[in-house]
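haha ok so turns out i had the wrong file open the whole time. this is the CORRECT one, sorry everyone. sequence first:
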Amino acid sequence: MVLVSAEWLLKVLDDPAVKVFDASWFMPSANRNAQAEYAEAHIPGAQFFDIDAISEIDSPYPHTLPSSELFENIAAELGINRDDHIVIYEGAGLFSAPRAWWMFRVFGHAKVSVLSGGLDAWRSAGGVLVAGISPKLARGNFNVEFQYGRFATTEDVVRACDDPATAILDARSAGRFAGIEPEPRPNIPSGHMPRAINVPFSRCVDKTSGQLLDADALETMLIDSGVPAEGDVIASCGSGITACVLAIAFEQIGRSCRVYDGSWAQWASEDNPVLRDS
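then structure:
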């Protein structure tokens, strides 16, 4: 299941094979502390999934995927077993939880879902929240089987720039994509890659509920955005977070999508073409 409802989670929350994680993450400009907010109120038994900490610390780019060995060890330390059903949520809307979902998927864990509607849906369904930090679980037997079909490198994107059979989707805002609004990270120009199609991640989300659009609405939105109905797809964004919203949207409609982990932060920092709309 790509998504699970709060009602479903209420029924299975006490199942030891269901592991719940708060993967809230905020842009630095938001001046919010996701881990502190988790400690103030979270779903009972949920642990905090720190997207920044669970990354390659030697990378010059933000929250880059860690090595398979490191992720396997961290997941096992979090108490995750290879047969567990992992449920990821965030405070509200759909922004960072898909990044944690994609990380588990790219490292080969199939039973991972996002809580539709996040904490807002949980509250509305009658779910309680608790404060503090959940007790550490016994070490699990999580193991990694890296899924290269979900991952894209800079070299893959360079090839896609000359390959009409591969669509490059950019989940950033229209202004950043066009090069008329600044990037939030210093010393990185705005603009876009050759042949890229702008599909802001917010178009995947229902504005009222904050939930992922249903499959029919997603397909209509993608067609209206100029995305080909078939073929390979690479999703990019500012730093690999909201590209995963596009990845989960494609999963919802039964299509595959690779995520460019370094995304624009890497592309625009290296010797790659940067286009702007005039």
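Residues 3-146 form a domain with the Oxidized Rhodanese; domain 1 fold (CATH 3.40.250.10).
again sry for the mixup
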